[in-house]
Write a structure and sequence with these properties.
The chain has about 425 residues and is an alpha/beta fold. About 50% of the residues lie in helices and about 10% in strands. It is built from 18 helices and ten strands. The protein has an eight-stranded parallel beta barrel, surrounded by eight helices. Helix 4 packs parallel to helix 5, helix 4 runs parallel beside helix 15 (about 340-360) and helix 13 crosses helix 14. The chain is globular.
């Protein structure tokens, strides 16, 4: 038995399960049971050790991921290290390396060495970047080089990978008949989509899914089944192509579970506000309540520069409806590669969304955090207010207290909490 799932099915509580349980404030048997039923995952490559072990799934704290990585336009490893530090300072539970420029192996190695949290990747990005750099058309990709790239990244130590297994010839036929404004906004999804069209063959990740399971199982790498046909604008939400891909992912998730490979499902990016809850519940039901990982979602398309706020609104609703893992969106979304401050702002906004969701889901300890800060506010306990805030550094920086410490600069001597003393 190599994987956490295999051990959980056998009733074996591992040190990793104990560490994840300690973070949640629950008994380790609870984590073991969730893993055994496929309701949670514990991403940790057997070749990598890191400090902050987390489990993602039903009834657990909503986790937050920060996407980092270079581009073909800006490939600065030093900058990526600074961005990693900002993501960690903001309290991210995970980072994903989406690098497509520079020395990809070395950059990934840096993330794996420096990150105390789980690290994910999208192997098709690395392969595509290499082929473009070599002047080779992406249509020349074959299953052998694709699976070699996947195994190389798993061997290097990544804890989970996004793989676009659900883009099939059938789903593309449905996409062709759709009236989408933006047919495909997923980078990995578009590569597979165009490969299928060009080669008139089936997606190798779908056709050779057992090979993928063998590689992932060997390293206990969690599969994040990517939604390559996710809607890229709210007008395209929940069409036939998206649902067909979801049905395929549900089937593949069951196959992975049966083989002892941990699996979670990725969800949509742009969804109208009124559809978010129903879409999450639909996808959870179709996928047997497997852990659900969403980007945002974004309930409007016009907030460029403020999409971390848009995503926090959507993420809170998605989390409350059952989404388990929120991928941050930064102020740079749709505009460019995020910088250090973008990363920090994105993680913090996503954490706000996750906490709101945790209160609604009744996650242990979530409401108690709000009770603590409320009592500190009533007692004018300024240090307590700071320490119980989500971002203590920001609160300390912004807090302006009157000389007698009986109010802040907003109300001064008319502070409602201390007003009784003046009556």
């Amino acid at each position: 038995m190599k994987t956490q799932l295999e051990k959980a099915k056998a009733g074996i509580i591992t040190p990793e399960m104990e560490a994840a349980a300690a973070h949640e404030g629950v008994d380790s048997s609870r984590i073991c049971q969730l893993l055994a039923r496929g309701l949670a995952v514990l991403p940790k490559n057997i070749k990598r050790d890191f400090r902050e072990i987390r489990s993602i799934g039903q009834g657990l704290k909503t986790k937050v991921n920060a996407n980092l990585g270079t581009s073909g336009v800006l490939a600065d490893q030093g900058l990526e290290k600074k961005k990693l530090n900002q993501a960690l300072r903001a309290g991210t539970d995970s980072i994903m390396d989406l690098s497509t420029g520079g020395d990809l192996t070395r950059i990934r190695e840096m993330f794996l060495e420096q990150s105390p949290v789980m690290v994910g990747s999208v192997p098709i990005y690395g392969l595509a970047a290499k082929m473009v750099h070599q002047g080779r058309p992406l249509s020349r990709m074959d299953s052998d080089i694709l699976f070699r790239e996947i195994e190389e990244q798993c061997r290097q130590g990544v804890d989970y990978i996004t793989v676009h297994c659900g883009i099939t010839s059938r789903s593309l036929e449905m996409l062709e008949r759709s009236e989408r404004i933006m047919p495909c906004v997923s980078r990995g999804g578009s590569i597979h989509m165009n490969w299928i069209k060009k080669n008139k063959k089936e997606n190798p990740l779908f056709e050779n899914f057992d090979t993928l399971l063998e590689i992932a199982g060997s390293y206990d790498v969690t599969l994040s089944l990517g939604d390559g046909l996710r809607p890229g604008c709210i007008a395209d939400a929940l069409d036939q192509a998206q649902v067909d891909e979801l049905m395929t992912l549900a089937h593949l998730a069951r196959r992975a579970y049966e083989k002892g490979v941990q699996v979670m499902i990725e969800g949509p990016g742009h969804v109208p506000l009124g559809q978010i809850s129903s879409q999450i519940k639909l996808q959870k039901r179709l996928c047997n309540d497997a852990p659900f990982y969403v980007l945002g979602p974004l309930p409007t398309d016009i907030a460029a520069g403020y999409d971390h706020i848009t995503a926090a609104i959507g993420g809170a609703l998605a989390g409350a409806a059952g989404a388990d893992f929120l991928c941050y969106v930064t102020p740079a979304e749709h505009l460019g590669l995020p910088d250090e401050d973008d990363v920090y702002q994105g993680v913090m906004a996503c954490r706000v969304a996750g906490h709101i969701a945790d209160i609604e889901k009744g996650v242990a300890g979530a409401l108690e955090q709000d009770m603590k800060i409320s009592k500190c506010r009533q007692a004018l306990d300024w240090e307590g207010i700071i320490s119980n805030s989500l971002d203590p550094d920001l609160v300390r920086k912004r807090l302006q207290i009157t000389d007698d410490e009986k109010g802040c600069s907003m109300c001064g001597k008319l502070c409602a909490v201390s007003c009784e003393e003046k009556m």
